[in-house]
């Protein structure tokens, strides 16, 4: 009886570990979806409202529901206020590193970093064109990330179960 309970416990824990490791691939998809929503907000605020960047970042912090991103956008807006010594490029890079560290892939980061070179520096039409380009690129990356997530999540779940079964067979 104890062996059966122990075997079920080992298989359950290893399967749960497989689910946990498989869940990491969903984080990139949810972060890319959030960035697509942020880009939509940027596009609306720049095109229809013609706001300045600190106001756009504050408004974005209010609209999005992610507390971590809201705090990061408030910090970014504060670092761009009149009288601050920080350059927008440096602040944008610091913002990207803090919000996407370890989750975003290099191509996602490079696309968002390139967007930072256009925001606030070029005219409104160039900014909107770059936002649309970035949106299309991140949409493509999201589709690829969802395919990868589905494939790898399934593999990790099965691997967790299989490792638990191997350990149980080894102990018996």
Question: Explain this structure to me?
Answer:
By secondary structure, the chain is mainly alpha-helical. The protein has one domain (2-171). It is built from 6 helices and no strands. It has helices at 2-49, 53-63, 67-79, 88-100, 106-118, 124-171. Helix 1 (2-49) packs antiparallel against helix 2 (53-63) and helix 4 packs antiparallel against helix 5 (106-118). The longest helix has 48 residues, at 2-49. The mean pLDDT is 88.
Distance between the termini: 13 Å
Residues in β-strands, percent:
under 5%
Order of helices and strands: HHHHHH
Structural class: mainly alpha
Largest sheet, in brief, is: none
Low-confidence blocks of residues: none
Outline, from the CA principal axes? elongated
Overall radius of gyration: 22 Å
Q: How many separate domains?
A: 1
Mean model confidence by pLDDT? 88
Number of strands: 0
Give the % helix.
over 70%
Tally of contiguous helical segments? 6
